[in-house]
Amino acid sequence: MTTVQSPPAPPTAIRPRVVARTGLYAVLAANVAVVLYFFFAAGFASNTLIVLGRLTGLFGALLMAFQLLLVARLPWLDRRIGMDRLTSWHRWTGFSVLWALLAHAVFITFGYAESSSLDPVNQLIDLAETVEGVLRAVVALGIIIVIGVVSARFARRRLAYETWHFIHLYTYVAVVLAFTHQVAVGTSFTSSSAATAYWYAVWGVALASVFVGRLVLPLWRNWRHQFRVSAVVPESDNVVSVYITGRDLDKLPARAGQFFLWRFLTKDRWWQANPFSLSAAPDGNQLRLTAKAAGDGSAALRHMKVGTRVFAEGPYGAFTALHRTRPEAVLIAGGVGVTPIRALLEELHGHAVVIYRVASDRDAVLYGELVELAHAKGAELHLVTGPVTPDKLAPAELQRLVPDITDRDVFLCGPPPMMNAVIGSLRELGVPKQQVHFERFSLAG
Question: Where is the chain membrane-spanning (predicted)?
């Protein structure tokens, strides 16, 4: 198999993740400064609560636009930061939006109530009835509160992903309502033509990023590449590999370690997208995913017919050789998390040590391929089997298997409990944080 080899970046190079993260912080800080400038330029109300309400409203609007940027799935950001981290930042930004807009509503309502004879509840009703755009803002806030509640961990665990995702789509309704409210009554928005142009630009960039990243780019790539199933190969009783072909796959910017959201266009599965990592490095001719039957979607892959059309969103993820900091590496896999690890081994330069943790030998998916790859590339391969306790990847065991582990990059993929345990072991061993690479999505199976 011919793969595109990517040498590690020189040790003195600024890490791609650092560049992207610093860029995002700089963009956010610059926009905070601009918002504050236009806020002060618009002048203050005589009521302190109204002043605080306007300020929290502006920051809520800015954070809402920033939140959209985080989930736009822009390739440049995704390859450098990773969907898991961007999604985590999106989550916490979302809660910040919720609290900022709640504060905005409370401060504004109590501020106007202070200068009128109405109590806060009746004051809010009066504002909604008499001031253009306020009713839309109340509806937007209600939607955001509902989304915040269903996104809390206690509720999220009880909802099917499809249900949660459908509710989450109403965020875009809230965005439109909030923007029209800002256009109608926003003091800072209407204070000058420069302020108006700025806010139109902020919302325009945010919404355009989502439109391009979530709709235009996936549609264009699928039209260009015309993905189809070319083979379905059982790897074991509950694991199957699916081979995907298409046009101009050498032009698809996919790398070992990344994943796609795969939608197989059959009458009973076209609506369901499943995230699976590539289990072989892209070679310009075909893509391969390998999945364990962990749910209805993955179990149905075994019966997928050759020739089935595929709609693939991606590639996504920062779990790639782009983030290497050292010439040598350790690849640690658990269970079916071996799929991106196997693909990375195929692409990586330099000496590698592969540690594959499974309960028993029969659970070692793609082990034969790992043996062949390790032999061809001069890598060490350790199959670690046995029960969860005692911990076979404790600090002492890792040190024994890889004595120079602190001088290597570590790529880690597996079930969350195993990953947490290994990250703890690496921390105990003193492996620098920037040398440890992982993504927390359970996307391999």
Answer: 24-45, 51-71, 92-113, 133-155, 167-185, 197-217
